[in-house]
Amino acid sequence: MKEEMIFKQMEFVRTRTLKALEATTEEQADVIPEGFNNSIRWNFGHILVNHENLLAGFLQKEKEIPSHYIDLFNARTSPRDWQTEPPSLDELRMHLSQQIEAMRTHYQGRLEEERESPFKLGSIMEFSTLGELFTFSNWHEGLHQGAITSLKRAQGIEK
């Protein structure tokens, strides 16, 4: 797959995420409906943190998001356990927008780079190149877009 197509997919997916964020109020963002573990805000933050963890971690570069976001939005965290105030939707929007621009800047021309030891997703999948991790990260963001839609439906916001 050509590099430009991977970046276009990434931009398409992120544009959809930002549109969903634009259609979310601060009040809606923190509701955790019955049967759910997280909120809409958590899912937006998790998308941001996941990209940083995977891509910056793969290249062993410093993350470009506030460090406390990791504690709030990492895998296996929940808003029910938050001890600090989460960022506003405007803050998340700013970081998500900046991240997409930074990805092109930092990673363009590098998608074929291999890591000495592949990133392992449990025992079922390994990612050897940055490009492979990009495509996984795009899929993961889409997965959380679905979670956001489900959370909105559970609140009666979307059909």
From TrEMBL:
<dbReference type="Pfam" id="PF12867">
    <property type="entry name" value="DinB_2"/>
</dbReference>
<feature type="domain" description="DinB-like">
    <location>
        <begin position="9"/>
        <end position="148"/>
    </location>
</feature>
<dbReference type="InterPro" id="IPR024775">
    <property type="entry name" value="DinB-like"/>
</dbReference>
<protein>
    <recommendedName>
        <fullName>DinB-like domain-containing protein</fullName>
    </recommendedName>
</protein>
<dbReference type="InterPro" id="IPR034660">
    <property type="entry name" value="DinB/YfiT-like"/>
</dbReference>
